[in-house]
Amino acid sequence: MLETLLPILIFAALGVAVVGAWRRVRLWRQGRPSAVPLLKGLAALPRRYLVDLHHVVGRDKVISNTHVATAGGFVAAAVLMILVHGLDLGASEGWGGVLGWLLLAASACMFMGSLFVARRRRHPPARLSKGPWMRLPKSLMAFSLGVFLVTLPTVGILPAGFGSWVLALALAAVVGWGLAEMVVGMTWGGPMKHAFAGALHLAFHRRAERFGEGNRSTGLKALDLENEAASLGVETPADFTWNQLLGFDACVQCGRCEAVCPAFAAGQPLNPKKLIQDMVVGLAGGSDAGYAGSPYPGKPVGEHHGSPHGPIVGRGGKALVDAETLWSCTTCRACVEECPMMIEHVDAIVDMRRFLTLERGETPNKAPEVLDNLIATDNPGGFAPGARMHWAADLNLPLMADLQQVDVLLWLGDGAFDMRNQRTLRALVKVLRAAKVDFAVLGNEERDSGDVARRLGDEATFQSLARRNIATLAKYHFQHILTCDPHSFHVLGNEYGELGGDYRVYHHSTYIAELHDAGRLTFAPWKGGSVTYHDPCYLGRYNGEYEAPRRVLEALGITLNEMQRSGFRSRCCGGGGGAPITDIPGERRIPDMRMNDVKESGAGLVAVGCPQCTAMLEGVVDASAEVRDIAELVADALVAAPSEETAARHRPRAVEVA
Amino acid sequence: MTKMLRRDPRREWIARNRLHPEHASVLREQGEGAVSEWLGPSGVIRKNPRAIGFIGPSGIKRIDRSGAQQGGQATGSSHQAAQDSRRTVTIEAPAFLVAVVPELTGGRLSGHDKDLLGLARRLADADPERPGAVLAVIFGQHKGEGGGELKEQAFGEAGIDRLLHLEDDAYVGFAPEARLAALSTVERELAPRHWLLPDSPLGGADLGRRLALRLGERPATGVWQIESDTEALSGWRCTARGAAESLDIQRQLPRVALALAECAEPVDETRHAAEPLSLTTAVPRALSRIEDLGQVAVDPAGVALAEAEFILSGGNGVKDWDGFHHAAKVLGATEGASRVAVDDGYMARDRQVGATGTWVTARVYLAVGISGAIQHLQGIQSCDKVVAINMDPGCDMIKRADLAVIGEAAEILAALVAKVEQQRGGQRDAA
Amino acid sequence: MQPEHQGVAVTVLVSVGRHPLTGRARRADQDARGLELALGLEERLPGSRINLLHAGPRCEESESALRGYLGMGAGTGLEHLTLLEQPEGADAIPALAEHLASATPQLVITGARAERGEGSGLLPYALAEHLGWPLVNGLAAVEKVEHGVATLLQALPRGQRRRLQVRLPAIVSVDGAAPAPRQSAFGPARRAQLEVTPLAAERDHELAEWAMAPARKRPKRLKIIKSASARDRFKAAAAKAEGGSGQVLEGVSSEQGADAILKLLREEGVLPR
Questions:
Q1: Distance in Å, alpha carbon of C198 to nearest chain B alpha carbon
Q2: Scanning every residue of chain A, which has its alpha carbon at the shortest distance from the alpha carbon of C69?
Q3: Contact between chains at A361 and C19 (C-beta distance less than 8 A)
Q4: What is the tens place of the pLDDT at every residue in A496-523?
């Protein structure tokens, strides 16, 4: 009897799943077109899944192994089940019997995995979604156990026709449940949807260039402003590109993003997981009442609803997402870094911000003033552009306009207007002079890099600043750009390229490390207390530079007391993405939490490499640690330059310009 | 009785004769500080250089030439002399009139008014052969509450020769149409050669522009300097600010000019007649299309920070926020806050002062328990007077403050509130 | 006469502003506040119409500044601006007066002073005189418009307000006390239409005769000491400006501290009487 029931069940499930898949694809196709090489993407899928995705998943060994067992077992079991039970190949003698044994092994493996899944679901951490996800271990067990049992007669362990028809029906029901969850649910919604959408998302990912060893793709994509018909940002879910929608649908609600999100931890109304789930709600239409994870802090679930062509952010009333949710993001990319499904949260948030800023003019709090300042004075503070070099009146800095050609163009950034950052800049200039680096600054020709404008969604102002900066830079000859601002570093290095400016950009920590390696800097031994290092998001996660700052600190003779969250898991200072400007209230302040991390590390000094981080961390009241930029530490430790010969030997074809 | 001064000719003689053996002791008895300088019998100031200075701690004579020792008395007496030395000027038959319409805030001549009258005097007195008279047209506001008395002397001393005091209920409050009708009548009857008004937001800026257009003149606005210019028709050239203070416009001085504060030195050497004048014809009654419904009560705490003149700002050091709010109410101050106080939820975000909050331009900024982060100090850099109350004498806010009191914020605020309330209660009793 | 639900026809006169530091063209601050006032009025009185009016030359710089105003119209009915095109240096007043006389708005809102050119703040007065309409300056808010009468709040110094009623049609001018303008959005600004009407130039001859120069810094007035003694006068002239270093009262009782503060507050005259 099972022999007749099983093929019907299997092919019915497959048939329903195909219908579901077609419907799901139609939902994604509501999005805007996006040119993706489909076949190439599919071909790259196994590698992206097995290498890139598991590189992220593998950060948690238990879960990784659980997933390998469960998912691997399932994929094998499903394929074999179609062969063995669907096409009835298992009954044949010879290699058909081997298939049956393999199917037994696969389902057993899957069952083992599902036991671990069940154990995890016993006391799930807050970041995991509940609801339908709580039944997943049972469904997994139903599928694996059911398949295991129905295969026993096939391989001859049990006699064919064992038990009564009641048992057969019961087994068929269990297998049916398993098939419904595991196969039908994959395309009709439910926990297993992540497998189907996730696989396609990996294949058709918007940033194909981020896959592969050591590759990263973090620059925002430019809006087409030339074409007046092109829409500015994302108003409705359907305004995302189709592969972005597909990406949202791939979310497994594991909540790793929620666990690392600084805004969520600060009690600001943002939870990256909920945001992605809201996009899924919008994509299909309906209310967020079915969401079973942590809500946005302070915002109860069930009050928001949306549709594919309805606005995401309501004007006045509530829609899918509240604007303050979008403005809470610091663009620190911690969520993207942690996401095992490679979802691009920051891209989505900036896309939606672009609409709010460019079409609605609803950038909150001080942001309109900052944007107006950027338009009128080329710096966010509204300072006179001619005052950019006032801090260096006594330093006699060489100007690009005078020299035309140098090795290093020192990009000062808007920190030049900030009295705190001027100390860092002075220190950096001292270090460069000590190493006899041939450098010059743009002086008053420099403008804001456009970082803040872009993260606030004002693509028009960003592009205007960027194009003018690129035109200025095109006038001069230099080997590379050096900056002590990771935000400028990222924008100049990763985002100007799309607008026609390709530069080799160094962060000062990298450059100092290279100077030290070349023997051009000598340091006095460190005499201070214990030190920890705070990784700036735009240096670390955005650009992968975790090593150079640590090498510099090591060269200074400092042994680091690493914070619990450092490196790619570093917690944001709260200063990125215009967050201090949009200033969405929460229960705590992000820099306070970060300073607390510093305190827990026991360090009396925190080394940083970013003017934003310096400002945010120094703004913490009653802080336990001092905040110093790496450049300052290096400048303080400088001792007389090494002898002339050694310097000359190491100096890479320096051009002496008097 | 004991206060009566008795002359002792012998002592005076000893005091004059510095060779007399008792000279020094007599001088010391005569007074605390006035020993080194006195008015001689012939009216000439006499000095005794030996009596200058004091014996320092090391027993050596010290002379402090900063004037700190006796400055107060010296300037006091010279001030008196200046007051007394005002020359009385009466212009009987003026060749022309320079009409001034002062803003008269609170019923008194403001500093701006006095500068303007100084400017009017320059125009009137340019030709000593044919002097003009300065005519002030004032609207009777002093009857209203808190108006104070219009002292004839103050008008004379500010340089007014003729005073036209118009009193009518129609001029009370915002009544530009009635006032314009009155000024038009003045123009018809007296035909002044110049009309001068202060270019102050709710003083003459409005009325002056209305008047100019009614007279068909193109006025100079934002005038801050005049020079005589023989080529010009009026004999004067003026420099006026244009384009939001970014431009200086040089042009002939037109008949109607609206001048900025400090456009000229106020009159301080002469006293004028301030002779009352009245119109012979009645001012026509214009039907007003604008009706003044009176002032609206505004809660000072809610005034926009950027507009506020007096800000009471609280920071991390404020522990008693109820007391703080009460103090703001009693002092009539607008409330501000440091970033920390806002972050901690004690104050609304729109109350934050500083580079990342609001840049304020208050006349007095009273910072309570604010240590003075650099961003905060940037935000208050254009405040006139900064007063700080703080526990930590070394903090940056104390360095910036014009007056700093080190101590417990709550206690000092409470004492301040008590004093203000007590003073106000006293006034009420007296009234 | 004017049922409330019909709303009011408002014309906002806008000019090309000038950033005080860089001199770049932008929305003039006061005009933008005027438009904000009008947009607020439109929200409260449905059916109100807002027209933007500008007279002046048309060039890239001024157009981007004018579009700045249109960018404030996101989500409102504000989609075009009437530009009376005139060459540089032409007198805008006759052109505007003529246009307003034929367009017959009920309320005309302008900024108090332009940020370029003469900037004398005469324009609203000239228009009022031309059209014979009442004018209210220093407007902070429009409370209501009923039966052809507008109830307004006028700003007085120190954040005080005065309530006025004015019969429409009227001209009102706003300055810094009016509500801060909303953000100008790029999209609506780019899409909006400029309705250009070329006009014959009426040269402003008087303006052409004046000498214009960037503003000089005004000399700081010295405290004049009328004193017979040369030493006193010298001291007054040479004395350091006050406030170089503040007075610090340490170790005093809170009473004494309060006294010192009270004295300063009285000297500055900030305490309410």
A1: 25
A2: A361
A3: no
A4: 999 999 999 999 999 999 999 999 999 9
Comparing CB atoms, the residue among C114, C175, C248 nearest residue B404 is C248
Q: What is the mean pLDDT of residues B343-360?
A: 83
Query: What CATH number corresponds to the domain at position C144?
Result: 3.40.50.620
Its sign, for the CA torsion B105, B108, B109, B112, is negative
Q: Which two tokens stand for residue B207?
A: 């009325």
Question: Binning pLDDT at 50, 70 and 90, where does residue B142 land?
Answer: very low
Contact (CB, 8 A) for A553 and B307: no
For residue B33, pLDDT beyond 60: no
Mind giving me the DSSP string for chain C?
Answer: ---GGG--EEEEE--EEE-TTT--EEE-HHHHHHHHHHHHHHHHSTT-EEEEEEEE---HHHHHHHHHHHGGGTTSS--EEEEEE--TTB-HHHHHHHHHHHH--SEEEEESS-SSTT--S-HHHHHHHHHT--EEEEEEEEEEEETTEEEEEEE-GGG-EEEEEEESSEEEEE-TTSPPPPPPPHHHHHH-EEEEEE----B-HHHHHSEEEEPPPPPPPPPP---S-HHHHHHHHHSPPTTSS-EEE-S--HHHHHHHHHHHHHHHT-S--
For the segment C7-36, what is each residue's pLDDT rounded down to a tens digit? 889 999 999 999 989 989 999 999 999 999
Find residue C84's DSSP bridge partners. C55, C197
CATH of B300-430, one of 3.20.20.60, 2.70.150.10, 3.40.50.1220, 1.20.1640.10: 3.40.50.1220
Give the SS3 label for residue A509.
helix
Cβ proximity of A144 and A108 under 8 Å: yes
Strand pairing category for B334-337 and B220-228:
unpaired
Tell me which residue has tokens 């331009």: B361
pLDDT tens for residues A414-451?
989 988 899 999 999 999 999 999 999 999 999 999 99
Distance (Å, rounded) from C-alpha B289 to C-alpha B287? Answer: 6
- On the question of pLDDT at A256 being above 80, the answer is yes
Residues A174 and A280 both lie in one domain: no
Whether residue A581 lies within 8 A of chain C, CB to CB, comes out as no
Specify the pLDDT at position A368: 92
Q: Could you tell me the residue range of the domain that residue A285 belongs to?
A: 232-360
- Asked if B304's CB is within 8 angstroms of C260's CB, the reply is no
Complex ipTM, two decimals? 0.86
From B35-39, B68-72, B300-304, C141-145, the region with the lowest mean pLDDT: B68-72
**Which residue in this structure is represented by tokens 């009176």?**
B294
Sign of the torsion angle spanned by Cα atoms B1, B2, B4, B10:
positive
> Are the C-beta atoms of residues A92 and A216 closer than 8 Å to each other?
no
Superfamily of segment(s) B90-142+150-277:
HUPs (3.40.50.620)
Q: A533 and A446: one domain?
A: yes
Q: Is residue A443 helix, strand or coil?
A: helix
Residues A631 and A564 in one domain: yes
Range list of H helices, A156-269: 165-179, 185-188, 193-203, 242-249, 256-260, 262-265
> Which of the listed residues A203, A224, A244 is the one where a domain comes to its end?
A203
> How many whole angstroms separate alpha carbon C241 and alpha carbon C243?
7
Cβ contact A411:A508 at 8 Å: no
Do residues B208 and B256 lie in contact, with contact meaning Cβ atoms separated by under 8 Å? yes
Tell me the C-alpha distance between A137 and A192, whole Å. Answer: 11
- Tell me the average pLDDT across B102-120: 84
Residues in B closer than 8 angstroms to C176, CB to CB, are 307
Residues of C in contact with A458 (CB under 8 A): 186
Asked if A357 lies within 8 A of C185 by C-beta distance, the reply is yes
Hey, what are A273's tokens?
């997981």
**Nearest-by-CA chain A residue for C187:** A359
CB A621 to CB B316 under 8 A?
Answer: yes
